[in-house]
Each structure stands twice: as C-alpha cells, then as structure tokens.
Amino acid sequence: MAAGGPRAPDAPAPLYALTGVTKTFYKKRRTIYALRDLNLVIRAGDWLAVQGRTGQGKTTLLQILGGLDRPDSGAVIFGGEDIAQMREVHLTRMRAESVGFIFQTFNLVGTLSAADNVEAALIPLGIRAAERRRRVSAALENVGLADRARHLPSELSGGQQQRVAIARALVKEPRVVLADEPTGNLDEYTRDEMVALLEKLWRTLNLTLVIVTHDTRVARHARRIGTMTKGRLTINTVNEHR
Ligand SMILES: Nc1ncnc2c1ncn2[C@@H]1O[C@H](COP(=O)(O)OP(=O)(O)O)[C@@H](O)[C@H]1O
Ligand SMILES: [Mg+2]
What we know:
By secondary structure, the protein is an alpha/beta fold. The protein has helices spanning about 60-65, 90-100, 115-120, 130-140, 160-170, 190-205, 215-220, and strands spanning about 15-25, 30-40, 45-50, 75-80, 80, 100, 175-180, 210, 225-230, 230-240. The strands form two sheets. It has a six-stranded mixed β-sheet with strand order 6-7-8-3-9-10, with helices on both faces. The protein has a four-stranded antiparallel β-sheet with strand order 2-1-4-5, covered by helices on one side. The longest helix is centred in the C-terminal third of the chain and has 18 residues, at about 190-205. The model has no long low-confidence stretch (mean pLDDT about 95). The chain binds adenosine-5'-diphosphate (ADP) and magnesium ion (MG).
C-alpha cells in the first residue's frame, strides 16, 4: 500500500462519526443543553454502553443516532452520510432499513401476536411474504421464543415481551441496534437473562450495539463504557479483549 494513503485496508470507515453535536431544548424560557459539543466514533461491531444519571442527555443521544431527532449543530455521519442534514423521506427510510430500536417499555402493539409484531418491522422494506415469514421465524428462534409466536403481548411475561422487541429490532438485519434502558422494567433475574441474550446476539450476529443504561451490571458487558454528564460523553472503559 502507498505510504501516506488515506486509510489502511484493515481500518474501515467508522459506522458513526459525530462531531460537535449540540442539542438544546427550551422549557419555560430556560435553555437546556441536552448535548454539548459531543464527539463520538462508533465502529461496526462495537458495543457501547452509555451510563449516567437521569437528565444527562442519554436518550437525546440515542434519538440523534437513530435519526429520530436532529441536532442544532454538528455532523452525524452514519455510513458515510450526514443524517443531520438528510431529507425526511431518506431519514425515514434509513431508520426503517438500518436501525433497530429497543425501548424500556417494549413498545409492542398489544393487538398483534409476537410474530406479527416482529413482521411489522419488515413491511416498510417491501420484503415478500414468504421471506418475511422465514425471517420472523428465525428472529423468534434467535431470542428463544419460537413456541410463543402466536401469543399476544399480554400473554407474555415482561422478559418475553422484551425478547419479542429484540426480535423485532433484529429481523431487519439493521446496521445498528439502539437500546434505551432495555432492562429498566425487568427484575434482576430477567435482567441478567436479557444481558446474556444480548451478549450472545452481539457475538453471533456481529451486531453494532449502543445501550443506554444506568445499571452497571448491564454496562460492564459492553466493549466500551461511557458516562454522560450534562450533555457531554466521556469514555471511561475499553475492554479491548471483547
Ligand atoms: N423534547 C424535549 N423537550 C424539552 N426538554 C427535553 C426534551 N427531551 C429532553 N429534554 C431535556 O433534555 C435533558 C436531557 O434529557 P434526556 O436525553 O432524556 O436525558 P436522560 O436520558 O439522560 O435522562 C433533560 O434536561 C430533559 O428534560
Ligand atoms: Mg433517558
């Protein structure tokens, strides 16, 4: 390779590169700096845990990574494109194709079975019915719920509902999975099961995972652990061996 080349062949461009990202909210004529001049690089295959107390900007960061919100200033490069500047139709498409979301409250549709909740993620992608069914089965299998496909959310435990939500996030084979306090509504035992599942999926499916959690027992499974304080992110730990 030529000396001074832009990039070594074994160092691909990062999945995310955020530079100078700022997000402010106005509440009762006060300015809230949810994100302050935030810089962050996330490589494909990374697992980043973001810790921090309530109100420090963690959810805002995930929303901006997922294209659910836009910063006031700064660049949010995702797969080579600045999603902060992207037109709404393209952003909607990017979310549907490339981002899997997992929420604290599961956010399943109560009137749909587990399988139909998972399949809903594939409808906007124009995938044919036979292929959708194959992928839904595989996704439910991956989270250990093959035998619960026809159950409604109300017929499942909290842990099972979150596993359906994980299957829904994964079924589209997203480029990144973003999880906001995914174990926040689970008891300790179920939390440990969920973390073990996420770890297995991260390894076997080569996921890129960003998890917001205030729970150190969840965070410590990640490859990198950062803390958000007043809209600023500091990376504290890098588990290189992971
Ligand atoms: N839509 C909004 N409107 C007004 N203020 C908001 C909004 N979203 C977040 N905030 C404020 O921004 C700050 C960061 O919020 P958030 O990102 O939800 O923090 P965290 O997830 O760490 O608890 C908080 O002060 C919060 O009140
Ligand atoms: Mg939050």
